Amino acid sequence: MPGLPSPRTEAGKAGLAALLRAPSRALIALDFDGTLSPIVDDPAAARAHPGAVAALRRLAPLAGTVAVITGRAAPAAVELGGLDQVPGLLVLGQYGRQRWESGTLTTPPVPPGVAAARQQLPGILAEAGAPDGVWTEDKGDALAVHTRRAAEPQQVLERLRGPLADLAERAGLAVEPGRMVIELRPPGSDKGQALKTLARARNAAAVMYCGDDLGDEPAFRAVAELRGDGLPGLAVCSGSTEVTSVAELADLVVDGPGAVVALLDALAAAMSHA
Asked: CA dist 13 to 10, 128, 236, 251, Å?
């Protein structure tokens, strides 16, 4: 497979071979932040890697399904990434709760616990002594507390875990940890469940998932579960120094969004000759 990196596991090698053997039934799914888009201090300033949209456009006509599965609201990922320029791309937002396809958004009602948490969160952060640099991103369906701008982001993150977990429990929300962020979101969905549901719905013959953060771990485990059920799969980590546990679950580790784009280009080239 010229131009394609070699997975370090035999299961990953088999998954890659299966993707190329039947491209029209391949499911290629990717996270957005840290995978297609470099991590930035302000999530609103995130943009897809310069080559990402072009690579997705090359891949989309060849693969059976190309999808982005993100913790962001689906419309935000579409806008920030320019993903509406990729014909046929499916975007599952809020860990699979939202679905954007061909300009149409499907989303369930926001549970009341989000409003309750929104009201209480400023007092919780003040009581916990959150320092300058800690800020809250209101996603509408979820609330994310970021510490990346604080002087000691990791230490502050650890200090806030307990109070935020208590708030989430009272509000009936799930806690989603990430790279210098803790998110309070509606329960009942994660990227792993979203990936498995999509694989079944699209009758995929092989699946690839690429992610970089703790929220992507359920999707990596889903790849392993699908393989156990006889569906070949490949788990790819967009590597970073911040969340090394994700790399341990992957069949292939690449060096950040630039290398993810290179992988997509190589897949498209290989699929075009399959």
From this structure: 5, 47, 12, 8
Cα–Cα dist 154/264, whole Å: 32
Which pLDDT does position 32 carry in this prediction? 98
Q: Give the number of C-alpha atoms closer than 13 A to the C-alpha of residue 120, restricted to the C-beta side.
A: 18
Q: At CA 242, angle to CA 241 and CA 243, rounded to 5?
A: 105
Amino acid at 241: T
Q: How far apart are CA 6 and CA 17, in angstroms?
A: 10
Give the pair of three-digit tokens for residue 79.
């806008």
Q: 10: burial class by Cβ within 10 Å (0-12, 13-18, 19+)?
A: exposed
CB atoms < 10 A from the CB of 161, how many? 13
Structure confidence at residue 240 as a pLDDT band (50, 70, 90): confident
